[in-house]
């Protein structure tokens, strides 16, 4: 895990992303989705560093997907540092962020609260 890359504007974990060999995170402009990313554009326009700092309930753009949405909600509730601590502990315990392509162990959920609990406890 490259902890220094942190969490992207949308909530995706740049620190664990398999693209992070060539991409230094959302704000580097190197994310493959940079040009078409609604969340990047919108948070920049609102002068916010992340969607988790935004007061508006929102499922726009990539937040329509459960993983970035749950990560965003987690960071909103417990803070980015705690999210990074949990992701590091889970990784050490064998949880894989990108197992096949862009899918991994955090993608196998249909319920946001269950995913938030999985991040928090590492157990399901
Ligand atoms: S999808 Fe958008 S917000 Fe997420 S890392 Fe890429 S550019 Fe950043
Ligand atoms: S409105 Fe949505 S996309 Fe825009 S900054 Fe807030 S949470 Fe992010």
How is the topology of this model organized?
Blueprint: H1 38-45, H2 66-78, H3 80-92, H4 112-121
The chain binds iron/sulfur cluster (2 copies).
Would you give an account of this structure?
The protein is mostly helical and 124 residues long. It has one domain (3-121). The chain has helices at residues 38-45, 66-78, 80-92, 112-121. Helix 2 (66-78) crosses helix 3 (80-92) and helix 2 crosses helix 4 (112-121). The chain starts with 37 loop residues before the first helix and ends with a helix. The model has no long low-confidence stretch (mean pLDDT 95).
From the structure above, extract its key features.
single chain, mainly alpha
Cofactors and ligands: iron/sulfur cluster
Q: Show unreliable segments.
A: none
Q: What's the SSE pattern?
A: HHHH
Tally of separate helices: 4
**Which descriptor suits the 3D outline?**
globular
- Rg on CA atoms, Å: 13 Å
Strand residue content: under 5%
The helix fraction, in percent, is 25-40%
Overall tally of domains: 1
Q: Report the biggest beta sheet as strand number plus sense, adding barrel if it closes.
A: none
Distance separating the two termini:
22 Å
Number of strands: 0
């Amino acid at each position: 895990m490259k902890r220094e890359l942190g969490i992207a504007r949308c909530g995706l974990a740049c620190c664990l992303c398999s693209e992070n060999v060539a991409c230094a995170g959302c704000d580097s402009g190197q994310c493959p989705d940079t040009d078409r990313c609604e969340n990047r554009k919108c948070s920049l326009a609102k002068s916010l560093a992340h969607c988790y700092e935004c007061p508006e309930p929102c499922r726009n753009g990539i937040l329509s997907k459960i993983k970035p949405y749950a990560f965003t909600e987690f960071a909103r509730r417990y803070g980015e540092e705690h999210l990074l601590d949990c992701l590091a502990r889970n990784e050490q315990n064998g949880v894989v962020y990108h197992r096949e392509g862009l899918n991994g162990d955090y993608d196998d959920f249909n319920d946001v609260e269950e995913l938030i609990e999985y991040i928090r406890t590492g157990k399901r």
